[in-house]
Amino acid sequence: MDDPVAARETASDGREILYAYSILYPPFCRTGSFNGSRWLIWNIYRWYKIMSPRIEMNIESIAYDAKSLRLYVTMHQIFRIWAIPFFNAPVTLTTVLQLVTKPYPTPHHPNKRDLYFIQSQNDLYQVNEWIKFVSQFGILSLFVFLWQLVATALCVLGAFAFWPVSWLEQNVIGGNRERGFGEAVKG
Known about the structure:
A 5-stranded mixed beta sheet has the order 1-5-4-3-2, covered by helices on one side. The chain is of the alpha+beta class. Helix content is 34%, strand content 27%.
């Protein structure tokens, strides 16, 4: 792709895009970078397409970090499995694409320019999002929601119970900057 932010690939079977991949980290599978990993990634995507032939997707935002060659894409998607009636998983995720640049088409071509290729893909889901893939009608989502409420209450209780530790760190020790022992004692 010429421009990592403007490019939105829509290949029918994805092979044109996947030839650039070397590592894939979807939420339930993992590949590495080895001889044949692109074949493995292609088959994972093929199986996803068999399970859910039509995934509705809406890209919310795209951010490109030129220094680290990373593309961050936040999207909403609705994943439906054809074999399970009434199942759908409306989820939000952020995909991190690690890019590499390579001269195209060859180093000896007079009009050579650098193109961006996807080196790896990492799909990031919040717990309450990925649980939707394994929970019919949101049953497990309720348990995740309740656990998140309990964890929030425990954080608040911990903050009240251990506020002196935080006060000492900020006021005596010096917050986030490093100070010597003598400096900490003097205040």
